[in-house]
Amino acid sequence: MFIRASRFAPTCLASLLAAFAFGSAQADEVQVAVAANFTAPIQAIAADFEKDTGHKLVASFGATGQFYTQIKNGAPFEVFLSADDSTPKKLEAEGDSVKGSRFTYAVGTLALWSAKEGYVDAKGDVLKKNAYQHLSIANPKAAPYGLAATQVLAKEGLTDKVKDKIVEGQNISQAYQFISTGNAELGFVALSQIYKDGKISSGSAWIVPASLHDPIKQDAVILNKGKDNPAAKALVDYLKGPKAAAVIKSYGYEI
Q1: Which of 5, 30, 76, 180 has the fewest CB atoms below 10 angstroms from its CB?
Q2: Contacts of 240 (CB under 8 A, 6+ apart)
Q3: What is the pLDDT of residues 71-128, one digit of tens each?
């Protein structure tokens, strides 16, 4: 196609190219490793983050322990949203993250859940009655919510009684899937997976008292691969802001 040039074309073209270059410089992409329990909140936050900052969030979901191994092996993650506080602390101590970037973005809540209405009572007595065949939990060695589940079972004196009934998921998402598909009558999940806007969204659940397990403090950190990426810093700042906080709280987390 032939375009007739005018005396204004060079100036207009230069302005357009400058505007494009400025926009490209301002908009970056950040690769984020996200603990599986935080899947729904970060998906909700991502849309607002992109709209408000121009940066794009690319998330991968999995178990915290698995992400640690991947990060140590050179995975291209720039920000890590962990399901605990100990793993980010460890990465910080080992020199794999930007010093001073770590903070607690949420405090999680554990729930005993069944996809069946009325199956789990409000006090969790169904757990002690031991009338079920399968109890789903996440791998306690890789997933902090799985570790919290084992602590609850120990405090309730049920560890030995239910050990042959446990169905173990690689992460909290898989533990949830075992229950939602009926492969386990009940199990321990993150409250955020079954909670929205102040109520349990499906099935029946017991919100486990925090006194029955160690606090599930979830820390975020900028990894070394993200130290020069403006989008990484922008995401961490955004997670500390009121808009993200409102979303996080709506899924049953504390701030």
Answers
A1: 5
A2: 103, 105
A3: 999 999 999 999 999 999 999 999 999 999 999 999 999 999 999 999 999 999 999 9
Of the candidates 108, 116, 139, the residue with the CA atom closest to the CA atom of residue 207: 108
Q: How many CB atoms lie within 10 A of CB 199?
A: 8
pLDDT, tens digit, 9 for 90 and up, residues 35-80 = 999 999 999 999 999 999 999 999 999 999 999 999 999 999 999 9
The contacts of residue 110 (CB under 8 Å, 6+ apart) are: 145, 148, 149, 152, 188, 189, 190, 191, 207, 208, 213, 216
Cα separation, 50 vs 71, whole angstroms: 25
Strand ranges for the chain from DSSP E:
29-35, 56-62, 79-81, 103-108, 110-114, 135-138, 166-169, 186-190, 195-196, 199-200, 204-207, 216-222
Residue 8 structure tokens: 């204004």
Please return the burial class of 8, using the count of CB atoms within 10 Å of its CB with bins 0-12, 13-18 and 19+. exposed
What lies within 8 Å, CB to CB, of 243 at 6+ separation is 48, 52
pLDDT at res. 27: 74
Distance CA 64, CA 235 (A): 19
The residues, any chain, with a CB within 8 Å of residue 68's CB and separated by 6 or more, are: 87, 90, 91
Q: How far apart are CA 57 and CA 46, in angstroms?
A: 6
CA 125 to chain centre: 29
pTM: 0.81
